[in-house]
Amino acid sequence: MAKTAKAKKEVTMEEALWKSADKLRGSVEPAEYKHVVLSLFFLKFASDKFEAQRKIIIEKYGEKFVNTIAFYTKDNVFFLPEISRWSYIMENAKQSDIALKIDTALYTIEKSNPSLKGALPDNYYSRLHIDTTKLASLLDEIDKINTGDKENDVIGRIYEYFLSKFALAEGKGKGEFYTPKCIVNLIAEMIEPYDGILYDPCCGSGGMFVQSMKFVEAHHGNKKKVSIYGQEYTNTTYKLCKMNLAIRGISANLGEMAANTFTNDQHKDLKADYIMANPPFNQKEWRADNELTNDPRWDGYEVPPTSNANYGWILNIVSKLSQNGVAGFLLANGALSDDGTELKIRRQLIENNLVEAIIILPRNLFYTTDISVTLWILNKNKKARVVEENGEVKRFRNREREILFMDLRQMGSPYEKKYIELTDEDRKKVTSVYHAWQQEGYEETYQNVPEFCYSASFDEVAEKGFTLVPSRYIEFVNRDENIDFDTKMKTLQSELRDLLVAEEKSKADLLTVFKELGYEIEL
């Protein structure tokens, strides 16, 4: 009988590149691996954009201004000296000193473009002693990418794909530089950062910014109306973020350097209209006992304890909100019910009418932990008001004495075998409920749904000791109440009998086999 031919699986460009880049394993330490590959993507992108702009300049003005830097930077294109161009790198790809040439190219690009200060690796490839043959093979694969497709943001898509794959590959405790896209999308879709200042105090590789700009574009908004501010503690991740944003032409103020948000705040006087963040969960010893005790960010609140930074992050975010600012950020579930100092701070936040919504997320959304975490929505102005957002008039009702609780743990679809992602339909359901609850006429458009959502009054929250655990408010159905005990037990009795009969048969068959082999087992 002829074998049935297996259908050939289509391999995307991202998958093909990943397989090619994966060959570097063994030549490069896992922690360094992503920086090697993503820096080459940036080099290819920057060079292709430069060549396209160079062609335009020649067509418009002739050769006279072809090396005038201003004619590139005015259109957000990086100027590249000849030794920094991809064509030069490919001409020398098989040379033994190609690593040095790549380092020189990246160094020269950064020196020629002040906006890239601190973004690109320094003496990186030479220091790592990468196998020349493997590096040349990777360069050949990257050379095949067509970055001229403006509509599909090819290089940005690849960069994002690789970030997610690196986060997956590095596993627990390592993927801090990347927040899964579906979570970032959910936050953007809830707080709708259309117009104003957007801030992320622990911005990682910039995913919050990238997806926010995509959200604005998808809703026909104007990206130029959003100003981006961020800060990142880890220097290598700071570089990833700068490259990630540069690839997409997104301008951002990430501070002068990578720095600790608590001890070296790069945006002390900032007031943001939107804040999106995924701080480190349950960060311990984030300050010394006598450190930051009089920090103005805690004004009006207790000083967050040294044992856990969760409420330090919350108060940092609160201090940065503008008069009408709204924030969406993630925290471990423990922050919903911690006692002691955290309880005092949480109570004050609730009494100050800052907490708008608490959303429990499904487990296994993150590459770094399998726990369920919480999305907090804080809003500086929960009063009734009419605003126009992106051409749409919204009539917000007064929600000062209310908090919306949502539980999404029954949502999500499998992803990469052991992970879960929130689908477009999941997120649409959540955001439509949230936005309906916020606005006038919610009596007709919103309702409490068992095991999904509940609008709690201030008095209810106070009565429960200011806990923000959603299950304390959302009604859960007891599915055992309507089960007939006798019927259930008879069903179990029948199933157990069948199992025991099958077990006896298997035992008899096994004894027979050993007997036939001449090794009878006597019980």
Q: What is this structure's SSE topology?
A:
Layout lengths: L12 H10 L7 H32 L8 H4 L12 H6 L6 H15 L11 H5 L3 H12 L10 H17 L10 H11 L4 E5 L6 H12 L7 E5 L4 H13 L24 E6 L32 H11 E12 L8 H11 L3 E6 L12 E7 L5 E5 L2 E5 L5 E6 L5 E3 L3 E3 L2 H15 L3 H4 L7 E5 H6 L21 H32 L7
Parallel strand pairs: 1-2, 1-3, 3-4, 5-9
Antiparallel strand pairs: 4-6, 5-6, 7-8, 9-12, 10-11
Report low-confidence residues grouped into runs of 5 or more.
Answer: 1-11
- H and E string: HHHHHHHHHEHEHEHEHEEEEEEEHHEHH
Beta-strand portion reads: 5-15%
- The total count of strands amounts to 12
Mean pLDDT: 87
Our Rg estimate from Cα atoms comes to 28 Å
Which class do the helix and strand fractions yield? alpha/beta
The number of helical runs is: 17
Instruction: Describe the global form.
Output: globular
Please estimate the helix content.
40-55%
Spatial order of the strands forming the largest sheet = 2-1-3-4-6-5-9-12
